[in-house]
Design a protein that fits this description.
14% strand; alpha/beta; Non-ribosomal Peptide Synthetase Peptidyl Carrier Protein, Chain A
Length: 328
């Protein structure tokens, strides 16, 4: 076991380990979560869910959390929005409906359509209003309330230290900080030093997110300061076993055949939970990630993006990963 891996307490909840997997729009649906569950992170999250849609009884948004009762490890629900009443109502609705281990507020999403409605990272702008929203959510539910943030809207307004202290005073149980500004989106380097400073100044757990693509960097960050743990996100695309690498401290050099076994398991989860048409559609982007770095990957991606039957698609996957040499 990696000596940097340890149990972590968030409010009334104690997780077995401090490796978290991030809520990702369009990605962390039930099949993907069930794949990640096999590697036993400390907790995993749903996709971010609209609090306003939930407040108005949005059936499709509720359905995005369907299947959580199947999970054998803790799961969290992440909400986004800006209306305090909607956020409280949505938190209460999910607490009653599916009993999540954590309810998380998204204060990090940099996507324009979320920002223009004053949700996501735009909540970093008015610190006092956001703190009052967190306070209302904390008072409205028994479930620990956490938040995911960016370090600021842009380089000239990095305010993670001041807003995180206000959220702590408002009762937030833990925060996760992505070390980029909203303006950066996912470009440039993540500023992990300011997240370490944030962790050192707070009395609640602070988790780090950003550029966690390798075991080496995960260990480097996790070994610094008072960080409570890591939240893995894009680093899991095509490499879900990164969770296991971080937990054990051992790099896993999967062969092509071993990678193919993971791919087919993922494929089967999509088909069984989403049906053939939607499952295949959702799987194609993952096939692009899994095949990255393999010789012949470009031709493989072209082939799987054509109209294929499920049996044909499975044959292409099996042939590619059984005949391709290990990654270079």
């Amino acid at each position: 076991m990696n000596p940097l891996i340890k149990p972590v307490t968030i409010g009334s909840l104690t997780l077995k380990n401090n490796v978290l997997t991030a809520p990702l729009a369009g990605i962390t649906n039930l099949p993907y979560r069930k794949l990640l569950e096999g590697y036993e992170p400390g907790i995993m999250f749903t996709e971010m869910l609209s609090a306003t849609a939930i407040a108005y009884g949005g059936k499709k948004t509720f359905e995005m959390a369907d299947g959580v009762e199947e999970h054998k490890i803790p799961f969290g629900v992440q909400l986004f929005g800006s209306d305090t009443d909607h956020l409280v109502k949505a938190a209460q609705a999910f607490e009653e409906r599916c009993h999540p281990a954590i309810i998380d507020l998204n204060m990090a999403c940099p996507v324009r359509k979320v920002l223009k409605n004053n949700g996501g990272a735009s909540m970093l702008i008015n610190e006092d209003t956001s703190a009052r929203t967190i306070e209302a959510m904390v008072k409205g539910v028994k479930t620990p309330v956490t938040a995911k943030l960016r370090i600021g809207m842009k380089d000239s307004s990095i305010n993670i230290l001041s807003i995180s202290k206000k959220l702590e005073n408002a009762g937030v149980a833990a925060i996760t900080v992505h070390g980029r500004t909203a303006a950066q989106m996912y470009s440039g380097k993540s500023n992990w030093e300011v997240v370490l400073e944030c962790a050192d100044q707070l009395n609640i757990p602070v988790f780090y997110s950003g550029d966690l693509f390798s075991l080496e960097f995960c260990n480097e960050v996790l070994g610094k300061g008072k960080l409570a743990g890591l939240m893995l996100a894009r680093g899991l695309f095509g490499r879900p076993w990164l969770i296991e690498e971080v937990k054990t401290g051992q790099k896993m050099d999967l062969s092509a055949v071993e990678t193919g076994a993971v791919v087919l398991k993922h494929f089967d989860l999509f088909i069984s939970h989403l049906g053939e048409q939607n499952g295949a559609k959702q799987m194609r982007k993952h096939l692009g990630w899994y095949s990255k770095g393999f010789p012949g990957g470009k031709e493989f991606r072209h082939a799987v993006n054509q109209d294929q039957s499920i049996s044909q698609l499975r044959d292409i996957i099996q042939q590619f990963f059984q005949s391709t040499p290990p990654k270079i």
